[in-house]
Amino acid sequence: MAKQLNIFMENRPGRLKAITEKLAKCNVNIRAFAIQDRGDYGLVKLILDKPEEAHLALSEMGVACAVKEILAISIPDKPGNMHRLTVALADNNINVMDAYAFVIEPSKTGVCCLEIENLRTTNAKSIVEAAGFKVLEDKELYDLCCP
């Protein structure tokens, strides 16, 4: 299953630089990221080629972080496909806790990263696949942008 690294950090200049510097020194490649402002603190979500190594390195620095399992879904970049996905999830009572997406060039394929409530105890992966979407395994996601 695909994983993302969630980092809870103080929202001040230089904090993000310290994170990216440590990841660069550990030869961890950032494939995608999202940053959410929470006032004095922020939440950084990273898709990395080596999430477990990054977690260990940042934890040793005293950074509050956690590896989270996500559902990474390959979606053709066409109108209506996101709706098809949300219908399949809603009709099967699957709750999306958090999400972000991006489009890959040149194929115009989108990737939707979903944090699903109780992912391990749901059949979300099967539901998504039955709706005609491909669920990416960890290595497929990490190698997608830059093989």
Question: Secondary-structure element order, as H and E?
Answer: EHEEHEHEEHEH
User: Which word captures the global form?
Assistant: globular
Integer-rounded radius of gyration: 16 Å
What is the fourth-level CATH superfamily of the largest domain? ACT domain
What proportion of the residues form beta strands (DSSP E)? 35-45%
Tell me what the CATH architecture of the largest domain is: 2-Layer Sandwich
Helical percentage: 25-40%
- Report the CATH C-level class of the largest domain: Alpha Beta
Quaternary structure type: single chain
Number of domains: 2
Q: With helices defined by DSSP (H or I, 4 residues minimum), what is the helix count? A: 5
State the end-to-end CA separation. Answer: 18 Å
Q: Say how many strands there are.
A: 7
Low-confidence region ranges: none
How can the largest sheet be summarized?
Answer: 7 strands, antiparallel
Which structural class matches the secondary elements? alpha+beta
Averaged pLDDT: 92
Q: Kindly report the CATH topology of the largest domain.
A: Alpha-Beta Plaits
How would you explain this protein's 3D organization?
This protein has helices at residues 15-25, 51-60, 81-91, 124-130, 138-144, and strands at residues 2-10, 30-38, 41-48, 64-76, 96-104, 109-116, 134-136. The chain is of the alpha+beta class and 147 residues long. Strands 1, 2, 3, 4, 5, 6 and 7 form a seven-stranded antiparallel sheet that branches.
